[in-house]
Amino acid sequence: MLQIVNYPHPALRYASRPVTQIDDALHATVRAMFDLMYAAKGIGLAANQVALPFRFFVLNLTADPQQKDQEKVFINPEIVKRHSSIEDEEGCLSLPGLYEKVRRARRIRVRCYDLEGNLVEHDADELFSRAVQHEADHLDGKLFIDYLDPQAMRSAEEKLREFELTYRQAQRRGEIPPDEDLVRRLDGMTQLPADVVSGVPPEPPAPADPDQAPAPL
Ligand code: NI
Q: What is the pLDDT of residue 54?
C-alpha cells in the first residue's frame, strides 16, 4: 500500500534512478499516486514521496479529481531550459502545513516521457513551472526547504523540529522502520533487475513488436 511519507523520511533525500519500463505496474502506481495526491489536496506528487526511488512524478494543477484531462505524468524528466527567476510561496505534501517563499526559474522547458512512452516537451510558466521544478527536485532528493534564506529558515525551524520529533516518535513506537532499514529497502529496489521491479524482462528478449513492447527509456 502506497502512502505519502513525511519529512525526514530518507526516501525524500534519495537520488532516484530512471524508469526503464512503462508497464502495467507503473500505470497502477501512477493511478494510486493521483488518488493519494487528491486525498491530500495537493497538485503534485513525486515517486520519492511514496518511498519509490524512481524518476517520475504526477501533476494536476487544478487539484480536482474530476478534471482527469488535466492530469500529467512526467517520466525521467529533464529541465532543459530555465529563464529568469521569481519568488513565490511554496508547500509540500511531505511537509504538511509549512509554506515559505522560494525563488525559482520563472519559465522552463521540461523534456520527459509521458505514460504512453512518447518523448514530450512542455514550456511552463507560473504555477506549472514552479510545480515541475519542485517535483523534479524531489527526484534528486531535494526539498524546497533547501532553498530558504536565513530569515525563512528561522521561520520554518520550529515546524521542522516538530516534523522530526513526530517522525522519531513514530519510529520508537515501531510504526515506521529504522532509517537504515528504509534506506536498505530503497537500495534494494534500485538494484533489483528490472523484471523484479516492474514485472517485465529487463531486456526485450527479441526485436520487439512495436505494438507489444513496453516503451524503452
Ligand atoms: Ni513536494
A: 98
